[in-house]
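Troubleshooting log. The previous structure file for this entry was overwritten by mistake, so regenerating from the original sequence record. Sequence copied from the archived sheet and checked twice against the printout by T.R.
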Amino acid sequence: MSRIAYRYAKSLLDLCIERKEVEAVSKDMAMLHSTLMASRDLDLMLKSPVVKGDTKLKVMDKVFQSNIHTTTNQFIHLMTEKGREAFLKEIAESFSSLVRKHNNEVLAFVTTAEVMNESTRQAILNKAQSLTTETVTIQEKVDSDLIGGFIIRVGDKQLDASIASQIKQLKRDFSENEYVSEI
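Regenerated output below.
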């Protein structure tokens, strides 16, 4: 998290807490982040020094204005007017992180071999909850290379219960085996 992104995100969070708009703006910032992650062209346009600020504002208004809260819209306008629109994706990510911290929540990254059903999701949520005292929110990712099982990462703690890691461990164990047959 860059210092610029952190400072703007912290200022926005403080304003939202004062106005009691944390939840609404949090949803908007999550949508802003996911949109900028999904649209490379939009992200590049915001970072381009060639495109003028008023053009960037018009594009951002067309994309977001009808879907976002007034405070979020004003924030986007402020960032663009100050020439900081290139940091919007980082600011949105920092804001989400600060909101989780404000709400005493932690993000658990769960990687599985296939999409989880609800009972598996609940079991993994319970396991992740046992790793921390904060409320856990799960961010899911599917990686077929795991073969089966899952990997949970909560903060600096990781639980790897994947088949792929168990196979790697078996390979290490067999390579260290000193038994040599006498044939």
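The chain has two domains: 3-101, 104-175. Archived copy saved in two places this time.
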